[in-house]
Amino acid sequence: MKRKKAALFAALIGAAAIFGMTGCGKKGTEELVSKDTSAESTGDKVKLTFLRVGTEPERKAYWEETVANFMEPNPRIEIEYQECGYGDDFETKLNTGFASGTAPDVINFTMASMGTRVPLGQYACLDEYVNNWEGKDDFMKNALNLGSVNGSVYGLAVFPDPRILIYNKELFEEAGLDPNIPPTNWEELMEYHKKLVKKEGGNVVQTGFGIPASGSNMQHYLSVFIEQNGVKNLVDEDNDTVLCNSPESIEAAKFLKSIADEGIIRWDSSNSDQNPFSSGLAAMTLGNITDFYNWNQGTVAGKIAMAAPLMNKKQATFCGMSFMFMSGETPHKEEVWKFIEYISSSEQMWKRYEDLGVTPMRESLKEKYVAENPESNQVIYDSIDCGTGSPKVAYANSVYNAVNDAMERIMYDVEDPATSLNKAAEEIQKEIDNQ
């Protein structure tokens, strides 16, 4: 990429999950968004509050400049920019705002918030705007899908965060593998993995595919492989059906266990710094774009590359995302939409790429984007295009915990895949029954 890599490190957020329950016509959301008192017809000046998650200085500089550039040709719209760190602080700030009637008008937040805030009407349905928007057909279809609940759009994607297969070309060459031909399917992944594993005295000192054995992100790894095996997700949010113990899901877990049995260096997925890939002890792994640029230094600098998502029955990967949301309580819908539309324009997408390295999610920008860095940018775009987020359910945290625990039991030979995933499914079903 043409701009400094330091900006890239802070440009992208970590993975998050997608939730959601209701559509535009549900009671609560429809009533809230119908109370518009737009200033377009009155000529009055409107003040909007814009709250975004995160405090990264590079992103703050982008947002402050963007807000100023928007207000200049729109003098009747004043935007107060606010930011707050990830986690409980942001959730508390939003909860307090909605409880007191002082919620921000525009919110930049992750997928995770959709599960609780869409059903409460705290995020407005954007269908009436998106359906008449000139940018709709140019917007990456999957990006629109990731911001949708029950077929209705609630958020427009801003910062994508796909999981990408990353590999070490030097280790490929040492193992007699073509460094320009990474694996494309499960069979090839296993073949490459076996050739890349090194052992000394029975101990694994180098692994092929660097998968974790425990931690809070084990569910991401399983979801990637079950989706490649034709399963929709860990659960089907449309009918609350548990899928993590389907025959195809169990097959995917068995495949991951067979990778481990051939030889891995155990690490905890809660801490990406433990990933043996970062120190040159693994030839392949899954990571996001920030991981790639963080790893592309030190002992593996200039030796690593990105590969297209694997497939078994289909090509798939995990893709987190943050969105622009319109508050369900704002009295200034038209002005909020005008700002969201501006943020979603081709010009702003390209500016985010130039300033922060963020992939533009416009089909009309794809060719230009890929031409900037053909080796990596095509892979990134394709990973977003076939990416799936976490299930759009309010009980998603229970899904994560149950699957994380199940995968850890599998990796440490406590239980076989079928037994462990069936137990996880029972735990998830209890949560569904208690909704």
From TrEMBL:
Signal among keywords: yes
Keyword Signal recorded: yes
PROSITE patterns the UniProt entry points to: PROKAR_LIPOPROTEIN (PS51257)
Signal peptide: 1-20
Pfam families on file: SBP_bac_8
Keywords in alphabetical order: Signal
InterPro entries from the UniProt entry: Bact_solute-bd_prot1 (IPR050490), SBP (IPR006059)
Protein name in the entry: Carbohydrate ABC transporter substrate-binding protein, CUT1 family
Annotated source species: Enterocloster clostridioformis
Lineage, opening ranks: Bacteria, Bacillati, Bacillota, Clostridia, Lachnospirales
